[in-house]
Amino acid sequence: MSTTFRPIVGIDLGTTNSAVSYIHKGKPEIIPSPRKERIIPSVVLIDPQGHIVVGEDARAALVAMPDRTIAAVKRKMGSSERISIAGQALLPQEISALILKELKSYVDEKLGEGEKEAVITVPAYFTDEQRRATKQAGELAGFVVERIINEPTAAALAFGLRNKKKDGHVLVYDLGGGTFDVSLVEMMSGLMEVKASSGNNELGGEDFDWRLVDWFAEQIMAEQGIDPRNDIRAKALLKEEAERVKKGLSDDISVNVELPVVTMKEGAPVGLFTTVTRERFISLIDDLLEETMVCVQNVLRDAGLQKDDIDEILLVGGSTRIPRVYERIENFLGKQPRNDVNPDEAVALGAGVQAGLKSGALAKSGLVVTDVAPFSMGIAVLKEAGFTSRPGGFATIIPRNTTIPVTKTEQFHTVYPGQTAVQIEIYQGEHEWVKYNHKLGEFLLEGIPANMEQEEAINVTFRYNLNGILEVTASCVSTGEAMKVTIQDAINRDSEAAIAESVRAIEELYAQSKEAGDEEEEWELEELLADAEWDEDEDIPAEELQTEAERLLKQAERLRASAVGRTRRGWRE
Ligand code: ADP
Ligand code: MG
Predict the structure, then answer these.
(1) Ligand 1 atom 24 nearest Cα
(2) Residue 2 located in a structural domain
(3) Which ligand sits closest to the CA of 206?
(4) Are 255 and 241 a contacting pair, CB within 8 Å?
């Protein structure tokens, strides 16, 4: 196979499963693993010999080696909290990079060695720092990250390529393992315009599993008076059983649980024998499904559409196999979702389509896609509340569902006589008070001439790019003094030093993995389970805690009271 196009691949880096695709003969195609798996579990294992194992074998070791395995790391993306695995403390993006490196090995095998560009998908509702962490994971894995795109948009693209002639409104409902997204896309002869997005980046199949785990634990507590969730291995076992039961209930109306040993009590085994009916399961998760339906209503409202205006419904993500999900959507929209969409592969295939649009491999398709910012972004201001003004009001600069990329500027002013600095606090969310929204970052604009209150104007510019990453600039109008930041948290995760450190950590892991590989050729799961060590939960070193404390002190110093007030609404594109 020879192509003149740059090799760009599309990657679905999921909470539960991941997959990679590329364009072959005008169509997106999954690149399978050497064992012919089309999707692999997003699970990492560092085995007792130090090997890095990613995918099904790592997933199979979750219960036996809970302290050597990591699943659902995507839920931690964007956080600076280190995750302990096999005695090491790794950042979420470093663990994600191990998953991406595994996928990259399939790509290198298929397309040959050499530089690879990648389009990586994220939930539409991912925050700025979650997107940055994803981009960084891609780079740590050795990809040139061409673009970060939203998962439901990717799924719509895969559909769009197959249905170019179709016009109308498509609703994409994506319920995976860790996140939920819903997007409304308008299709007009190849032009695909995302009209509105909504979702919850902390809602998915994992939560359904945990609801079942809690239900199991309550039964054991009632009968035996001990909470099995306090035993890390019992908890992993119940979680695995919960997922098995949940999946079983997608086919059958009841599933039996027969676990002779869940945990131990005074030297004797404690088991669990029960039956879970579909009705029971629905009662455990229906409030979560209700939340997803509220999001569906929100996108309809935001897009100014009625239920009847929806022409096609695409169900994406493994959790849409739950019959209750299908039923609720069908009941609400009065229409059957399409049954020709592969819920496991649609996002990866769509990422491949985006990659093909980029590389030129799909240049002739005529497909064009535009996306939106899924949430409002703005800054904290002094807000009038009754007869007084209170800090912590939210002034929107980019309203949600604005088509991206977008640049907007708004003018604010000083609020105290003699004020020479303003703290620009950046938030995303929909609430009029910032404390209910999500903080993206902050910086101090200094050097404002001392003047009467309201006399100094400050321009704040938000630039939201195609990757959904925000850049903020603030400048003092009278002096022209500008300050620019890309939003990042106070520990400066994007700094070169931090990235170099991550690169080093990953190289070291691989060096260990390789050494172990040289010692003994073959790696047998049974052997591995036999000599697994259970209890080496190493803590974060003292020096790191020390620097963390210093950081917090510095941050506190910077946070002297310096507010900003809103002037007038004046968008400038
Ligand atoms: P992600 O995009 O988060 O990686 P996936 O789309 O792969 O997730 O979906 C994984 C989720 O789907 C898991 O929570 C899994 O338990 C769930 N799932 C997979 N198959 C079924 C099924 N037959 N019934 C119910 N849930 C399922
Ligand atoms: Mg997914």
Answers:
(1) 247
(2) no
(3) 1
(4) no
Give the distance (Å) from ligand 1 centre to CA of residue 237.
18
Between CA 364 and CA 192 the distance in angstroms is 15
* Residue-by-residue pLDDT tens, the chain, 573 positions: 445 678 899 999 999 999 999 999 999 999 999 999 999 999 999 999 999 999 999 999 998 998 999 999 999 999 999 999 999 999 999 999 999 999 999 999 999 988 899 999 999 989 888 999 999 999 999 999 999 999 999 999 999 999 988 999 999 999 999 999 999 999 999 999 999 999 998 899 999 999 999 999 999 999 999 999 999 999 999 999 999 999 999 999 999 999 999 999 999 999 999 999 999 999 999 999 999 999 999 999 999 999 999 999 999 999 999 999 999 999 999 999 998 999 999 999 999 999 999 999 998 899 999 999 999 999 999 998 888 889 999 999 999 999 999 999 999 999 989 999 999 999 999 999 999 999 988 888 888 999 998 999 999 999 999 998 898 999 999 988 777 665 554 334 567 788 888 999 999 998 888 887 655 444 444 443 443 333 333 444 555 545 555 554 444 343 333 456 654 333 232
Ligand 1 atom with the smallest distance to the CA of 249 is: 24
Lookup: tokens for 240: 């695995």
Q: Are residues 83 and 128 in the same domain?
A: yes
Last residue of a domain, one of 219, 251, 284: 284
Cβ contact 183:44 at 8 Å: no
74 is catalytic: yes
> Do 323 and 189 share a domain, yes or no?
yes
Whether residues 253 and 343 share a domain: the answer is no
What domain count does the chain have? 4
Q: What is the CB < 6 Å shell around ligand 1?
A: 14-17, 176-178, 204-206, 243, 246-247, 250, 317-319, 321-322, 344
Query: Does residue 3 form part of some domain?
Result: no
Domain boundary among 267, 284, 301: 284
Domain that holds residue 247: 205-284
Question: How close is the Cα of 369 to the center of ligand 2, in Å?
Answer: 20
Q: For residue 88, which phi and psi values (nearest 5 degrees)?
A: -115, 155
In a domain, 1, yes or no: no
- 137, 192: one domain: yes
Catalytic residue among 47, 74, 139, 312: 74
Instruction: For residue 556, count CB atoms less than 10 angstroms from its CB and return exposed for 0-12, middle for 13-18, buried for 19 or more.
Output: exposed
